[in-house]
Amino acid sequence: MMTYPQIDPVAIALGPLEVHWYGLMYLFGLAGGWWVASRRAATGRYPLTEREQVDDLIFYCAIGIVVGGRLGYVFFYGMDRFLADPLWLVRVWEGGMAFHGGLLGVIVAMWAFAKKTAVKPFELLDYIAPIVPIGLGLGRIGNFIGQELWGRPTDVSWAMVFPADPEQLARHPSQLYQAGLEGIAMFVILFWFSAKPRPRAAVSGLFLITYGLFRFIVEFFRQPDAHLGLEAFGWMSRGQELSLPMIFIGIAMMMYAYKRNADQLIPKPKAA
Questions:
Q1: Closest Cα partner for 62 from 115, 122, 110?
Q2: pLDDT per residue as tens digits for the range 107-149
Q3: What is the tens place of the pLDDT at every residue in 45-85?
Q4: 23 closest CA partner among 142, 145, 119, 188
């Protein structure tokens, strides 16, 4: 069994003000995304070519992540609590964000940004899809430091006992599994795939497939939400129920992209 590293979840404390590592990971993720997006824009082969456009894009993404992530958590994971206490929705300092809600929030934000900039929505989504894993990976590191969303009990040699766990059981460090798959692996796969011109919507489709598949797998090692438990068929978690449709939608998008968008490539081929 491995020892959980004693990392204070509070990164900075100034009197009553506390800045948690989880919150900083959001900022680091947005900063990393801005840097990569700026580098891509500078090539002139993507729908965004100006630094100012990238700045606005990241702002729209941040709004989509926060608003969508909060709404997703409340409606996907806490509907009963919301109905009993509607003001809980706005008490974001109590915690509670959901990736699937954040994804929907970003999609809506990108649609609004695409309309503002006269860029085709799927061109914009293909542009940012390979960048998103930066924030996903860092967010899971934040979960690990904050001792939340830990794994199921296990006897594997790399199991950890999280100090915040009231049961003090050796568990899978599932946050690190997700950081490795949703962060590093997805980043490598999507960047490799998007390095060459692909039909419009193909990169977005691959994003949905890889995230849905990786999340579905990791959920077998992650402790289900205590108030939800395992639902469909007695073995599927809420995270798996939300991820499974992503895989099928992603497959359909890639099939459509290669069948209908074969001549609409992102990024633009290099000039001869």
A1: 110
A2: 999 999 999 999 999 999 999 999 999 999 999 999 999 999 9
A3: 898 989 899 999 999 999 999 999 999 999 888 888 889 99
A4: 142
Q: pTM of this prediction?
A: 0.93
Report the alpha-carbon distance of residue 267 to residue 123 in Å, rounded: 9
Q: Give residue 29's pLDDT band: very low, low, confident or very high (50, 70, 90).
A: very high
Distance set, CA 128 to CA 6, 112, 123, 229 (Å): 35, 15, 9, 33
The total number of residues written for the chain in this structure = 272
Q: How far apart are CA 171 and CA 152, in angstroms?
A: 5
d(CA 190, CA 203): 7
Dmax over CA atoms of the chain, in Å, equals 63
**Beta bridge pairs of residue 166:** none
Query: Exposed (0-12), middle (13-18) or buried (19+): which is 3, by Cβ within 10 Å?
Result: exposed
Within 10 angstroms of residue 7's Cβ, the number of other Cβ atoms is 12
- Residues 6 or more apart whose CB falls under 8 angstroms from that of 101 comprise 68, 69, 70, 71, 72, 73, 75, 76
Which of 261, 251, 228 is closest to 120 using CA atoms? 261
Domain spans, the chain: 10-266
Q: Please state, in angstroms and rounded to a whole number, the distance separating the CA atoms of residues 190 and 248.
A: 18
β partners of residue 20: 10
Determine if residue 140 is labeled as part of a ligand binding site: yes
**Tokens, residue 18:** 């506390």
For the chain, the C-alpha Rg in angstroms (whole number) is: 19
What amino acid is encoded at 65 in this protein? Answer: I
